[in-house]
Each structure stands twice: as structure tokens, then as C-alpha cells.
Amino acid sequence: MNRRLVSILLIGLHITAGLARAGEVPTLPPPELLSHASEDQYWISQTLPPPRGATLGRSAVRARQRASNRPWERVALLSGRAVDLAHRGSNAAVLLDDGTWLLAWPGGSSTGRAPPGSARLRALAGDGATLWAVVAAIPTELEESTRPATQPLEPAAPNDRRRLLLCTFEDGRWLPRGELPETAAPNAAVSCTIHAGKPIVAVLTAWRKVIVFRRTDDGWETDSIETGFDIRAFKLLEETPAPTLWLAGERGAGELRLFRGMWGAPIPLQAGEELASAVARAACYFSGNVRVTWIDGTRLRERAFSTAGAPVGDAIDLGAFPPAPAAPLGSGTLLLLGVLGALLALNILRAEEETELAFGQSTVRLATLPRRLIAGSIDLLPMFMIIVWKLPLSDTTAAAEVVRNPSFLVWLVIGAALYLLHTTIGEMWGGKSVGKYACQLRVIGLDGNPPRLTAVLLRNAFRVIDILPGLPLLLLILFSPLRQRLGDVVAGTVVVMDGPVPERDGEPPEQGE
After folding, report:
1. Nearest residue to 284 (alpha-carbon basis) of 316, 321, 256, 310
2. Confidence class of residue 49 from pLDDT cuts 50, 70 and 90?
3. How sure is the predictor about 151, in pLDDT bands with cuts at 50, 70 and 90?
4. Does residue 326 contact residue 52 with C-beta atoms inside 8 Å?
């Protein structure tokens, strides 16, 4: 009898828990990863850990254009967690977890005005020039004037008084465009998109159920979509040929539901085991394909799918996220750098003296180090221009990703070829490259005569060997008696000041080699 009573109690508890779970409004954790696309641009936002000593997280927003030489560039590094992405024009619209929002573009951002009263933005959407939002508010609040974005948010009104409303941002304020049906809970997870000028809103009402509200000329049309798994992420995709809802469970790339008069059967995205270990996932529609991005360990990856669910091409590695922090320098390294810096300063002071040398029947002045540095920098302009053009120098993480791109190496090779070509031609004709001409320097042989053709070719061929290892070989100029780099030593040349040597009283010039 006792055993039977225990079984009945367990069954009752199980049924009660199931009913309670079915009646609750599911709460999804804040997203770690977001993606959004317009016809021409593709944005990704990822939550980064807070800086050392801080508690507030950060969000890194990046963008890629459909036709661009740069794969990705930093748009903004924001304080706070991004919970939704949209766009207005060419700018990203970012909704943060504290209810504030902003427009962001490369190199800048602008905080947007908040809705009035206790109204809260729940989701954003865009159709080009107009920014839309789903707002949880008391309907009468939006009839009031908008307060500045810097004014603190008022306490949220009780849920039984708030409703979900659609608004557009026009003339610097949020204007109401209609209430959603009462079945849309104001505290539920929401996604919104604009298709053919009409808003569509998806609301998560149960762990395996989404209600979709479509705005028509006659009002709201309501559809219910159920899944065979607990929903962990969902989104109404933008810029799709037909209204498309992406749904994802605990694992995998998820599935699509397409609306063609009615919502169709689930279309699984065939990713195999590729997303089995995904920490976070996001989806958008860009350049004709559904693009699912996910975090795989310390890497951010992307896989494209057709709207039929078939994979398109191979998965793409979008780089390390978040970037690994730089290792601090040890005390031994700092001491060594200090000693090298002191030696460098002493030799620079020595190199600034204009030393006169006699080569054969002529007397010349050795080129000073500052002039050689300036001349070398001028000659390296082709390389500098390519680096400035191709690399987002204000964003070290994005720059590192560009450097790993094979196309960047091709451009560096082109720049190096231009550098070697113009210096060789210039020194063959008068012993002066462009930089040396600007700094009044020239190259001569150790016999005091213009360098031979073979010496010029050999000297310039060794530029690659001088530069590639970095500082060590270039330091040879500081310690060489004739201020020669390795190419000068091998070719038997020296760089001197151009023009006649001024007459001086005193000791005769030193004898060159």
C-alpha cells in the first residue's frame, strides 16, 4: 500500500512540474553571439570578458561588406552586453542589456533616445532608413514626449499593465505603430524583422513553442510553431526571399521554417557534427545564404547553408575570439631592453657627427644616421602605403586576422617588389634612390667612384636580408666604422653626404679602406 501511494505521489509531482513548466514564460540566457545583415553589410557582435578589475562586460561589433578587400573590420567596442542587432542605413543599431541602444559605425557611435516612462526596448529591426523596435510598455506611456537617453530608466511597470508594442524611431523619438495581441507576454523572448514593409514578430511562449505575429492590411495574423526540442535560440531572419524563422536547440545548427502562405515543415540545417561543441550560435541571411556563426573553443567559425538546408562550401574560420591577452614582459626582458636602448642612444649620438674620410683622390663625409633613417623611410613608402591601406591599425585583433589572410601576403610581396625596383633603378642612375635624393645622400664604392652595376644589384638584393630579421642586422650600421649595413659590406659600398666637403682648418681627414 505504501509503495502504491509513493508511486501515485511521484506521478502527481511529475505532472504538476510539467504543467508548471508548460505555463511558465521561458527565459533565455543573454546571447554571447549575435549576427545581423542588410543587403550589403554583415555584422557580428560577441560578448567579451570585462577588463581586469572591472565587472561590466564588453561587446565587440564587427562588420564586413559584400564587396570589400577587408574581410572584417572593427565597428565598435561597447561597454555592456549586446542583446540584439539591427541596422539603420549603413550603421549598426545595437541594443544593450540595460535597455539602452546606440548607432555604431567604424570609428564612432551615438547613443539613441530611450522610449518614455518605464518602456523598455525588447528587440530591434530595420528596413533600410527606418529603425523599428518591439517595446514593452504601458500603451499610454508612448503618447508622452521622449526623455533624453542620459536620463535613468524608470522602474519597470508591473507585467499585468505592460504590453508589447511596435514602434519606429522618427524625428528623434519613438512613435507607436500598434499593439501586439495580448497573447504576446511583455517579458517573453522576442525577435522581429521587416519583410516587404510589414513587421513580423516571433515570441517564445513555451520551451518548444513560438508564436509568430504577422502584420497585414487587416491586422495581425497569428501562427503557432512547435518544435521537437527545447528552443535555446531563435531569430526571424532579415532580407530573405520569404519570411524565415531560424530555431536552434541545445546542439547543432538548428532548423528553418519558411512562410509561403503558411509556415512549412522544419528544414534541418545539415551541419553533421560540426557544431556539436558550439558554445554559442547566431544566424542571419547574407549574400544569398543562411550563415550560422558559432564559437568553437577559442575560434569563431561560420558555415553557410541554402534555404533548403544544404551546406554551401566549407566552414570559415573567422579568427580568435576573444583575442588572447598579451603576456606581460618579465623583469629580465625589460632590463635587456633598457641596456639595448642605452647603447642605441649612445651610438646615435656618435653617428650624428659628420666624419670626413678620404677615398682615393676624393674626400667625403659619411652620411649621418638621422638622414639615413629618413631616407630609408621615404624609400619604404610603397610598403607603408599598403600596410595603412590594408590593415585596420586601430584594431589589433582585426589587423591580426588580415595579416593571416593570404591576400595580404600577396600585397606585401607587391610592395616589396616596388621598393626594391625603385631603389635599384635610382642607385644605378647617379647613386641616389628617391629617399637619398631628398636627404642629399648618395652611394659610392670604397674607391671613391660611383658604384659598379654589380655592386648596386648586390647591395639592393641584400635589403631583404637586412630588413626581414628586423633590428639585429640593421644595428650593424651603428657599430660599423663606415656606418655600413650588411648590403654595403658585401657590395663594397658606403653611403655619404652629397655635395662638396666644406673646407676646415685642422687635422686631415681619416683614410677610408
Report:
1. 256
2. confident
3. very low
4. no
108: exposed, middle or buried (Cβ count in 10 Å: 0-12, 13-18, 19+):
exposed
Considering only residues 259 and 352, tell me which one the structure prediction assigns the higher pLDDT.
Answer: 259
Taking the C-alpha atoms of residue 53 and residue 465, their distance in angstroms, rounded to an integer, is 44
The grid cell for 49 is 570578458
Sheet containing strand 219-226, edge to edge, reads: 190-195, 198-206, 209-216, 219-226
Kindly report, as residue ranges, where domains of CATH 2.120.10.70 are found in the chain. 25-320
Write out pLDDT tens, residues 412-431. 889 889 999 999 999 998 88
DSSP letters along 279-326, please?
S-EEEEEETTEEEEEEEETTEEEEEEE-TTS-EEEEEEEEEESSPPPP
Contact 362, 356 (CB under 8 A): no
Q: Could you give the CA distance from residue 89 to residue 87 in angstroms, rounded to a whole number?
A: 6
| Cell of residue 197, nine digits | 514593409
Q: Are strands 82-88 and 163-170 parallel, antiparallel or unpaired?
A: unpaired
- The correct answer on CATH 2.120.10.70 for the domain covering 25-320 is yes
The CA distances from residue 7 to 3, 10, 15, 289, in Å, are 6, 5, 12, 52
Strands 441-445 and 91-96: unpaired
Task: Answer yes or no: are the C-beta atoms of 355 and 364 closer than 8 Å.
Answer: no
As a whole number of angstroms, the distance between CA 293 and CA 432 comes to 53
* N- to C-terminal Cα separation, the chain: 113
Cβ(126)–Cβ(93) below 8 Å: yes
pLDDT computed for residue 157 by the predictor: 47
Cα angle 200-204-207, degrees, rounded to a multiple of 5: 150
Residue with cell 577587408: 70
